[in-house]
Amino acid sequence: MAVIEQPATLSAPARPSVWGKVTAVLALLGRSRVAIAGLILVGFWVVMASFADDCIIRPACWMGDSEAVSTPWLARYSPFEQFRGRNLEGPSADHWLGTDRNGRDLWARIVHGSRIILVLAPISVLIALAIGGTLGLIAGYFGGQIDEVLMRVLDALMAFPQILLYLIIIAALGPSAVNVVLAITIAGAPGIARLVRSLTLDIKTRDYVAAAQTRGESPWYIMFVEILPNARGPIIIDAMLRVGYAVFAIGTLGFLGLGLPPPSPDWGSIVNAGRKFIQAGHPWDALWASLSIASLVVGLNLLADGLSEELGRYR
Amino acid sequence: MITFLLRRAFYLILTLFVVSIAIFAMSEIAPGNIAINSLGNTITPAQESSFNAQNGLDQPAVTRYIRWMIGSDWRAAGLIGHPVRQIYEPDLNRWSWWGALPDGTLFQNYTDDGENMIRVERLADGSTRDVPLGPEVWKTDAEGYPVFWGVDREGRAAMWVRGDDNEAWTLGKSTWRSSKGAPRAYIPLQKGLLRGDPGVSFFTRRPVAETLVPRLMNTLLLAGIAFVVVMPLALALGMLAGLNEGRILDRILSISSLVATATPEFASGVFLILIFSTWLKWLPGAVVVSSDTAIFERPQMLVLPIVTLTLIELGYVLRITRASMVEVMRTNYIRTATLKGLPQWRIVTKHALRNALMAPITVIILHVNWLIGGIVVVETLFGYPGLGRYVMEAALFKDVFAIEAATMVLVVIAVGTQLFADLIYTYLNPRIRYT
């Protein structure tokens, strides 16, 4: 991570402000054309997801119970509104991307789909970070038998091809947003635990950890206050890549029919429903949803790639 | 070296053991009702408990795990007092379990009234004959009940209790049938995964192994071809990019490989179908398999699935190869070779190649986990009858035994290739110590 030098004043401790950090990261991104391209792609979908309808200014709507009364902004229509007699149409002035088999506007569905994926993916990565990070800290810091047992179990989970984990979990629990998040968390946590463990093993030997131990700090204090903040760089890069994987995974699950149940405008589900109409001369559902997910995942990867490259150069 | 191998093999078995427990726990113990998933949510509690008893789902998890792994026929044989055997009935086109008398006669049992046990003996021509058994067959069990262990007409080991009018529900062709004089307890007969019998699918009522093996073969064919295509292509392009580091060719290859790898398989598959099948009409957009040899008669069906798999794998291997090549080209011995005045092609082929290929080759093999993910999606998208689509459909229909078996097979493949990658790596790199 970039370290910002600020002049130390008498009143405030010499720490970089949040805003300073943000501008520093943006400045870093600005140097890489790859990262800018990624930022544009991801930014496009973030804007679409945020301003699809007026949800963002009405907190009641965040709970998801007043879907029907929200006023569409960028989405132009509700993703559930069915236009009578306008099924399976191609792009037109009324319906920019066409309509699906139930006469629903594809643009509205795609835009609302971005909201689903952009909420679920970071949430699942954050939960995986919390669980995997804690396990990794425990295994790395305590070592010994705990480490051995934890790592055996996590190795076994990592031996799984991830898709199989998703399939088993969703098959056992049924498809829903919560279970999709759960599946991605369980699949992602072991990898994070491994990374955090190796970082912990390294940082554990530093002097400031020894100092904290001499002071008589509790192991939990040392793990979360001394070790974790000093391991953040690689963890953040890894987490960014993982958001990309999570988007990928949510799309794949939707495509396999194991994602969010209909009628939710999940991109993977739209491709799955739309691919039946490709041969019938209506490729639009599958095409737009595929393009959307491809652009978002590619954007996230370009962003992470450009950022890690720039960081590598910075060091 | 031997210790190293033994150690690796031990960890492999340990990992597989933990994996099998995880698979079992997630698919059978997890909340979610197998009876309702298999039979629909209109069943009555009586029907549900009948179903659970008949399929051994009411037994403790440890018993069920043991049955899944090493079978239950040996346990049942001990209770019945005769060995049990699985035979194939060609006229009914199914596998069924029978008890075997000392003279080799196969039998099953039933009773209509809970009093008179009847032994159905199977004759050589496949027909059956009922032999009534006397009251002496009832044995008193540990709790003082007169019980009889036999094989019921559905091919399960079962315990009848004398004078019992227990009612059982079975799902016939389409209606529920209730029958009196049913057994009190069942042990579903199974040879177990380790002996090649992962159970009977709740969904198709066919042995899982029967469907799984041909599906596995199809998948190995698809993955094998994809592998043969990807390997040389990715290595060659990766080295090309690595040798031209920072130039325009490198930028193009790097960025396009990133895009190809990041695009989900179903999205790139849809693009390919739209371009080559719908628009240009060059290739079929789906794999239609009407017979066992259909794949070989129309190999063009395989082109799009293979290209889709290639795209996603290509980028990853290419990037690894490129990074490895770049690293090797910066080493001192390459600089020495350059300073010696050796021609560039000679430096590359003679000095750089072997070292640069070490990382990618192991990475390719370790990448099998991702390949499996790709295979599930590609097989589903193109309708290819492989193991990936099988496991996907099993998950969709909650076909527990099918998921368990197919996942285990895929995990064994994944873990086995990881061991293989380790061995190759130690072989290629003599600096690795065998610890």
Tell me about this structure:
The complex is a heterodimer of chains A (315) and B (435). By secondary structure, chain A is mostly helical. Helix content of chain A is 66%, strand content 0%. Chain A has 12 helices and no strands. The longest helix of chain A has 37 residues. With 435 residues, chain B is α+β, with helices and mostly antiparallel strands. In chain B, a hairpin with a 4-residue loop joins strand 1 and strand 2. Chains A and B meet through helix 5, helix 6, helix 10, helix 11 and helix 12 of A and helix 1, helix 7, helix 8, helix 13 and helix 14 of B.
Kindly name the structural category of chain A.
mainly alpha
Most extensive protein-chain contact, per-chain counts: A-B, 47 and 51 residues
CATH C-level class of one domain in chain A is Mainly Alpha
Average pLDDT taken over every residue of chain B: 82
Any low-confidence stretches of chain B, pLDDT <50, length ≥5? none
Describe the global form of chain B: elongated
| Averaged pLDDT of chain A | 84
Secondary structure: number of strands of chain B? 11
Strand content of the residues of chain A, in percent?
under 5%
Terminal residue distance of chain B:
9 Å
Q: Percent of residues of chain A in helical segments?
A: 55-70%
Tell me the distance between the termini of chain A: 9 Å
Write the topology of this structure.
The complex is a heterodimer of chains A (315) and B (435).
Chain A: H1 18-30, H2 33-50, H3 59-62, H4 106-142, H5 144-159, H6 162-173, H7 177-203, H8 207-215, H9 219-227, H10 232-255, H11 267-274, H12 284-314
Chain B: H1 2-29, H2 34-39, H3 45-54, H4 61-70, H5 73-80, E1 84-89, E2 94-100, E3 106-110, E4 118-122, E5 128-132, E6 139-140, E7 146-151, E8 156-161, E9 168-171, E10 176-179, E11 185-188, H6 208-243, H7 248-262, H8 265-279, H9 294-297, H10 303-329, H11 332-339, H12 344-366, H13 368-382, H14 387-397, H15 400-428
Antiparallel strand pairs in B: 1-2, 2-3, 3-4, 4-5, 6-7, 7-8, 8-11, 9-10
Helix pairs in contact in B: 1-15, 6-7, 6-10, 7-10, 8-10, 8-13, 10-12, 10-13, 11-12, 12-15, 13-14, 14-15
